[in-house]
Amino acid sequence: MTTAISVLEYINSCIKKEETDLNDIESFEYHLSKLEELGSHLLFKKFQAKGFFESNTFSSLEEAQKNVNVLPKYNRILASLFELFIRHGYIVEADNKKYKLNINLTLNIDDILKNLKNMRSINSEISSNASLLTNVIDSYFEILSGEKSIFSCIFPDGSLEVIEKIYKESPDAKYFNIWCANILRYYSDFMSKAQNSYFSIIELGAGIGSTTEHLLNQNINYSNYTYTDISRAFLNHGARSFKHDFIKFKILNIDNDSQLQGFKEKYDIVVATNVLHAAKNIEETLKTVRNLLNKNGIFIINDGVDKRDFSTLAYGLLDGWWTFEDPHWRIDDSPFITRANWNKLLHSAGFTHVTSVNEITKPALKLLQDVIIAL
Ligand SMILES: C[S@@+](CC[C@H](N)C(=O)[O-])C[C@H]1O[C@@H](n2cnc3c(N)ncnc32)[C@H](O)[C@@H]1O
Hints:
With 375 residues, this protein is α/β, with parallel strands linked by helices. The chain has 2 domains: 4-20 and 171-374, Rossmann fold (3-Layer(aba) Sandwich), CATH 3.40.50; 25-168, no CATH class. Helices cover 47% and strands 15% of the residues. The strands form 2 sheets. A 7-stranded mixed sheet has the order 5-4-3-6-7-9-8, with helices on both faces. Strands 1-2 form a two-stranded antiparallel ribbon. Helix 13 links the parallel strand 6 (267-273) and strand 7. Helix 2 (23-49) packs parallel to helix 6 and helix 5 (109-122) runs antiparallel to helix 6 (127-138). The chain starts with a helix and ends with a strand. The structure holds S-adenosylmethionine. S-adenosylmethionine is lined by residues 167, 205-208, 210-211, 229-231, 234, 252-255, 273-275, 278, 320.
C-alpha cells in the first residue's frame, strides 16, 4: 500500500545513494562572501558620502540617516542594512543605541571598485552576481528616494540575461534545482510501480523557469504541467521557452485562495523554487498548497533557509522582499524561514512527513538554501 511514509522512505534511500559534489559550490560561496564584503563596504561608503557617520560623533541611526532621502516603504531595508553595517564593523555601538564610525576602515570607494573589477575578471562564476550588485548599488539612493525603479537595475533595458545567469547557471542554483529534479524522479519511479504512471504538477512562482528546465529533463510522464506565476511577463517568457502539449501557463498568486483563482483540480506534485519567502502570510499560503495537492501528493520547496547578505543587498529594495506580515516566522531582517520553522509550519498545515536534502545528505559545508520535501 502506498503511504506517505513509504514514499518518503524510498526518496530518503535514493537521496542517500546519490553522490554529492560540493566543490563548485564551495568555491562559489567563497567568492560570493568576498563579493558580499565588497558590496557592503561600497554601499556603506556611499552612505557615508551622503553624510551618514561622516564625522566621529555618536549618533542614533535615525539621526545618522537624516541626510538620506528615503521613501517610508524602505524603512525595513534600512534597518536591515544597519544591522549589516554593524555586523561588518563599519559602525560600532558606543552607548545606548548611539553609534560611531569605525575609524579603522581604510578602503575608499576607488579601492573597492578596483577590487570588484578584479574579482569579476578573475572569477567568471561570480560575474553576474557582481554586475547585479554593482548596478543596484550605483542607483541605490535614486531608488531609495523614488526617482528610479529597482527593476531597471535587475533587468537593464528589459533584459533577463543577468538574472537568468544567476538563477540558472550559478553552482548553488544548479545544485538545488538538480535535487528538485532528482526527488521528482524518485517520486515518479516509486508511484509508477505502485499505481500511477502519469503525473500532474503545478509549479508556483516559476518565473524564468530555472527549475522547470530541470524538471522537464527527467524521464517523467506528465499528464499536465501547470506553470504559474503572479507575473504575465514571466508566463510569456515560459511559453517562449517551453513548448510541450502538456504545459499550461496560468497566473496564480500564492497569497490568494487558489480555488477563487480558478484552480479547482488537484495535483500530484507542487513545486516552489525561491518564491515562498515572498508570501505575505506563509500559513495561509500553505493552506492553498494543501488544497492543490492530491492525497499522497508531494510538495517540494526549494528556498533560502538562512539570511544571505547578497540577497539583502541585491533584492532588498524590491517591494516584494518585505511584503511578509508574519515576521515571527521569519529570520530577523530577512524574509527567509529557518528549516526548523518550516518543520513546524508544514506539520501544522497538515503535512505528516517532512524532511530535506541537507538533513539527509549532511553537507560538510554550511548551505544557506535547502530543498524541503513534505507529504
Ligand atoms: C526569485 S524569482 C524565482 C523564479 C524561479 N522559480 C527560479 O527560481 O528561477 C521569484 C518568482 O516568484 C514570483 N512571485 C513573486 N510573488 C509572487 C506571488 N505572490 N505569487 C506568485 N508568484 C510570485 C515572481 O514573479 C518571480 O517570478
